[in-house]
């Protein structure tokens, strides 16, 4: 029997939508029914240019045949294999291919099903790593203001997005935060990495002095903070964080859920910025967003600390039913093949200067108070409507959708992160339409 896939279901009530204004949406639903390469098709038959790669995840564009076929083939051949105490070839193959493109020094892969789970996994590994080495007092976790590390309890505890935290109780104990690196007074309209703010990494020394290094397990930051509105690391900042963490025996975790898989023009931000963390959390672009999958990538040093004791014992009491799921693994392999065959990471780097100039051409447009960019990421910050924060950007989002482009908003910031297959005429359309939208806004 064919699936019922009506473009407009007759009742929208049951589905409680994530991170969505449910009542607003259900009064005027925005439905996608198909996608191909750079475009979505809406239920009413319009083409919408994807300015956000879905949710920062479809880096190779949509419905790419190699990925679709790999999923179909795997689903028909081996649908599921137990993730614990059993294996299947695709999960090992994918891990090897991830390590092939990861920064030198990264040697192991632990699978999850999302960015949020990758974060929880990395935080747990960090604490257990120190304990395995006889430093069990290192349990504190340091995040950063305005950081986004998913929505589970560890992630919102180290995260610093107030709305994602404040109604959910007391969080994890033993967490502290670095200040964020956003200095609009000094760095507004900077192209790429800003000049000012490396000194903010020195705040880690203050936190270490306050708690004692011997109580701190890890620092987790997004090398470039995406969700909070594209906040770039000031020049020298990540290098300083690395030096201070290393000096005090603290693990450094880069949350590369957005920056991983070519977004900045290298496989990972760690390579783009030339700073090697101890662990990287990933998801999204790993499978082109097509099948849920995440991965924590670690150095040999982190992994090897667990490989002691009797060999019949489980080394790490952690994992998910779907860790390394066969269909997700097949999707991951096909995705990495697509990136490689089409040279998409290099393509992102080549397209970045054109993207940068197009974005910054919006300087001077109505309401625009800052523009930021790196790789194929861009943000346009709007002056909020007095007393009604977020409203202006949300209106821009709705108008943009009506005019055939998909953008994202967070607060009064518009964020864009198109698929890496984007062509110059698409960039012109995206930025040109956004300008029209902004010119027409209250
Ligand atoms: N870490 C980072 C750095 C992220 O950006 C997560 C963890 C969580 O991933 P999952 O797969 O659990 O959602 C993210 C997710 C947006 C937006 O528009 C960003 C994310 C997700 C959805 C929307 O900014 N980032």
TrEMBL record:
Q: Which PROSITE patterns match?
A: AA_TRANSFER_CLASS_3 (PS00600)
Q: Which SUPFAM superfamilies match?
A: PLP-dependent transferases (SSF53383)
| This protein's record includes keyword Methyltransferase | no
| Cofactors demanded by this protein | pyridoxal 5'-phosphate
Q: Which UniProt keywords apply?
A: Aminotransferase, Pyridoxal phosphate, Transferase
Molecular function GO labels: adenosylmethionine-8-amino-7-oxononanoate transaminase activity; beta-alanine:pyruvate transaminase activity; pyridoxal phosphate binding
An example Pfam family from this entry, by short name, is Aminotran_3
Q: Which domain of life is it from?
A: Bacteria
Example of a GO biological process term:
biotin biosynthetic process
User: Per the UniProt record, which EC number(s) apply here?
Assistant: 2.6.1.18
Q: Which family does it belong to?
A: Belongs to the class-III pyridoxal-phosphate-dependent aminotransferase family.
Q: What is this protein called?
A: Aspartate aminotransferase family protein
């Amino acid at each position: 029997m064919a699936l019922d896939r009506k473009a407009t279901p007759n009742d929208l009530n049951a589905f409680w939508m994530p991170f969505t204004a449910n009542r607003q949406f259900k009064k005027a639903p925005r439905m996608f029914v198909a996608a191909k390469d750079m475009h979505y098709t809406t239920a009413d038959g319009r083409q919408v240019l994807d300015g956000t790669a879905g949710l920062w995840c479809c880096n190779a564009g949509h419905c790419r045949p190699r990925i679709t076929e790999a999923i179909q083939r795997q689903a028909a051949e081996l649908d599921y294999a137990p993730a614990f105490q059993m294996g299947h070839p695709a999960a090992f193959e994918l891990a090897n291919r991830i390590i092939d493109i990861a920064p030198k020094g990264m040697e192991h892969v632990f699978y999850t099903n999302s960015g949020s789970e990758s974060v929880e996994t990395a935080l747990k590994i960090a604490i257990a790593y120190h304990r395995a080495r006889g430093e069990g007092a290192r349990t504190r976790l340091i995040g950063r203001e305005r950081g986004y590390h998913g929505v589970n309890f560890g992630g919102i505890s180290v995260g610093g997005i107030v709305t994602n935290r404040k109604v959910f109780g007391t969080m994890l104990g033993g967490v502290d935060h670095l200040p964020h690196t956003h200095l609009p007074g000094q760095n507004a309209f900077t192209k790429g990495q800003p000049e000012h703010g490396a000194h903010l990494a020195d705040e880690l020394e203050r936190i270490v002095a306050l708690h004692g290094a011997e109580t701190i397990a890890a620092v987790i930051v997004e090398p470039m903070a995406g969700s909070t509105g594209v906040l770039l690391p000031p020049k020298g900042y990540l290098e300083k964080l690395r030096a201070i963490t290393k000096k005090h025996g603290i693990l450094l975790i880069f949350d590369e859920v957005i920056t991983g898989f070519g977004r900045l023009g290298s496989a990972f931000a760690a390579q783009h910025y030339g700073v090697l963390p101890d662990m990287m959390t990933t998801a999204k672009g790993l499978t082109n967003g097509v099948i849920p999958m995440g991965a924590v990538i670690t150095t040999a040093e982190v992994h090897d600390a667990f490989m002691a004791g009797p060999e019949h014992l489980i080394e790490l009491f952690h994992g998910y039913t779907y860790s390394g799921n066969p269909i997700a693994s097949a999707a991951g392999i096909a995705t990495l093949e697509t990136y490689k065959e089409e040279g998409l990471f290099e393509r992102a780097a080549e397209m970045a200067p054109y993207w940068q100039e197009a974005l910054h051409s919006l300087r001077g447009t109505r309401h625009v108070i800052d523009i930021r960019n790196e790789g194929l990421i861009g943000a346009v910050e709007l002056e909020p409507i007095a007393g009604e924060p977020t409203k202006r950007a949300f209106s821009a989002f709705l108008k943009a959708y009506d005019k055939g482009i998909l953008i994202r908003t967070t607060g009064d910031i518009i964020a864009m992160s198109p698929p890496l297959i984007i062509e110059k005429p698409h960039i012109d359309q995206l930025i040109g339409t956004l300008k029209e939208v902004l010119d027409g806004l209250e």
